[in-house]
Amino acid sequence: MQAFTRLDGRAAPLSLANIDTDQIIPKQFLKTVEREGLGKGLFFDFRFDPAGNEIADFVLNRPEYKGSSVLIAGDNFGCGSSREHAPWALMDFGILCVISTSFADIFNNNCFNNGLLPVVLAADEVAVLMDEAKGGNHMVSVDLEAQTVVSPSGKTFSFQIDPVRKEKMLKGLDAIGETLQHATDIDVFESKRAIGQPWLEN
Fold first, then answer.
1. DSSP state of 158
2. Which letter, b or e, does each residue of 26-39 get, where b requires 16 or more Cβ atoms within 10 Å of its Cβ?
3. Using the 8-state DSSP alphabet, how is residue 54 labeled?
């Protein structure tokens, strides 16, 4: 997992509330367990019409928001069924941070497990970011170490985060990486078991 420390990037405003995981990545894109390439299915029914043509006024199709790495979202983002493909699709598209007033629990956990930072701010703070992102300047800064978001106009908002999750994000540790930090202890345990209980090795 790639470490997340500070992100300076373009922010795209998606003011819809209750965006569920099927809207983030529709079911027809769940046939793969590969993370690469899922960005093409992100918000598919919002981005494309039934004929497969881009819907010009959807925010992520607009030229000024191309290459956005921060998504300012409505309340209860990521609700619905559990699918790890949702953060995979966002990250493959280039979105590395989502800011909202709240996230569904499973989606929130999947984000942290994959290196996408979900930031919870108060409703009035999200509204400020949403409004500013709709203006001419779309650049925001998200600093995980300082736990701050700086709006395009320079307003600074602080967010809370579980310290254990923060540390893992800063170090780029997923569940496997966290386990491998104890590789020496694991090797010692396996060596002792091989000597003391050799029948388990067969």
1. E
2. beebbeeeeeeebb
3. B
3-state secondary structure of 24: helix
Q: Is residue 109 within 8 Å of residue 117, measured between CB atoms?
A: no
Domains and CATH numbers, the chain: 6-171 (3.20.19.10)
Which contacts (CB < 8 Å, 24+ apart) does range 57-63 have? 59/12, 59/13, 59/14, 60/12, 60/14, 60/93
Coarse DSSP helix, strand, coil percentages of the chain, rounded to the nearest 5 percent: 40, 20, 40
Quote the pLDDT of residue 199: 74
Residue ranges for the chain with pLDDT beneath 70: 174-194, 202
Q: What residue spans of 52-141 are helical by DSSP H?
A: 85-93, 105-114, 123-133
Q: Which residue has the tokens 């709006």?
A: 151
Closest by alpha carbon to 14, among 54, 84, 49, 61? Answer: 61
Give φ, ψ of 97 to 5 degrees: -150, 135
Tokens standing for residue 52 = 């497969």
Give the separation between CA 102 and CA 118, rounded to whole angstroms: 9
User: How are strands ordered across the β-sheet holding 97-100?
Assistant: 117-120, 97-100, 70-73, 6-14, 139-143, 148-150, 156-158
Distance CA 183, CA 186 (A): 5
pLDDT at residue number 189: 63
Phi, psi (5° rounding) for residue 186? -65, -45
Confidence (pLDDT) at 197: 76
Query: What global pTM score does this model have?
Result: 0.86
